[in-house]
Amino acid sequence: MKKHIKWNSPMVLSFVFASALALGLNYVTNGLTNGLLFSVYRGSLSDPLFYVRLFLNDLGHANAQHYINNMMMILLVGPLLEEKYGAKNLLSIIVAVALVTGIAHIFIQGDTMLLGASGVVFAFILLASITGERKGGQIPITFILVALFYIGQQVYEGLFLQDNVSQITHILGGFLGALYGLVINRK
Predict the structure, then answer these.
(1) How far apart are CA 74 and CA 172, in angstroms?
(2) Which residues in the chain show pLDDT less than 70?
(3) In this structure, is residue 88 part of a structural domain?
(4) Can you give the pLDDT at residue 2?
């Protein structure tokens, strides 16, 4: 059996399992660990956990459905990206998304908690749509359409819907994925 199963995407699988562990801890502690470690919100700069939360908020999820929705897309797109760009580059994207979206959230909606990997999902989607052969600095039409559909939907929902979703996290995650793709593919 071991010969037939392959740990094919170490970074993506580690992220998925670390997020599962965070979710399990959240259930066992009745939400305490999400508040302490796996979500970001406005807090004291003298609190060391404030800085930890800036980097770990992508691991936390409110419930199993939230976790599954994010992980399905990460498991679908992530291995292809890890094969193309490598584990270190994917980790740098995940860390950048956590930090940038966490800081933005603190300034925009810091009185609420932000948690989940949807910013990473959007970064991966936009990065995947720009990945591939490009000559002469050309931008694929598929990337433009994906950006319009995914980011456009988030702008619309942010303006016209009242929900518990951080559209700014999706927009910033998508922007970071697209930016990363444009920069790395140019090299």
Answers:
(1) 17
(2) 1-2, 133-137, 161, 163, 187
(3) yes
(4) 65
